[in-house]
Amino acid sequence: MQWWHAIIIGIVEGITEFLPVSSTAHISVAASFFGYEVSDPSVTAFTAIIQVGAILAAVIYFRDDITRIATAWLRGLFNKDQRTFDYKFGWAVIIGSLPIVIAGLLFKDQVETVFRNLWWVVAGLLIFTVVMWYGDKYGAKNRTEKDLTLKDAIINGTIQAFSLIPGVSRSGATTTVGLLQGFDRVTVTRLSFFLGIPALLGAGALQTYSHYEAVGAGVGWTATIIATVTSFVVGYLCIDWLLKFVARHSFSVFIWYRFITGGGLAVLLLLGVVQP
Q1: What global pTM score does this model have?
Q2: CA of 232: how far to CAs of 15, 108, 172, 229, in Å?
Q3: Which residues of the chain have pLDDT under 70?
Q4: Which one of 31, 89, 120, 253 has the fewest beta carbons within 10 angstroms of its own beta carbon?
């Protein structure tokens, strides 16, 4: 992969990772536009690895929250009197992260091959856009982070597993189900960040371990590192903007964007401009 392709794809990843628009879909389209085979093992691994850059940006951005929650969780393990909300929230993140890990391992081959077809991206974008619209319009939005239960986390984590299908969007899945559970937009966005940290770090580590040689022989580690660093910088800049945006606006701009992007991609595929 050429270095400037890596920078552009890294920018795309950094911008879209935390928005409910599916970063994997956008990376796949960008890679296909540049002429790369999106189902190639090295490209699939590259896609997962560069997401680590954006998620590390979230780790640094939320470092105080993560430290507080992790400390409370450890204290609560050994002292029942220390089992505060942060202790319970820590368990919610851990247990909520399990479904996507299990699904990712069970359907690893399909995720790396079948689901990489851009027609799956079109389906994920268009079908889940309807679900997102319903959640944003009819969700009660009267529950806050303090109202989060273990049941909520399990449901949210289970729906997050559907984001293994490109186009669905991990952040889109978690925010939508959170809205349907009655949480406000800032709460579901923050929860999406926390659930995404273990899931994406794990996926990146697995792909690095499984396809280290394929990446080196295909996309190349220089391009992979360039894209990862780029996604880190751009991702960090986008986090603060997103939290401020959802505090004042609905998700309608993302809903329309997903609809237009999905429809536009379908047209490009039908015309043969990009290959599935």
Answers
A1: 0.84
A2: 10, 25, 20, 5
A3: none
A4: 253
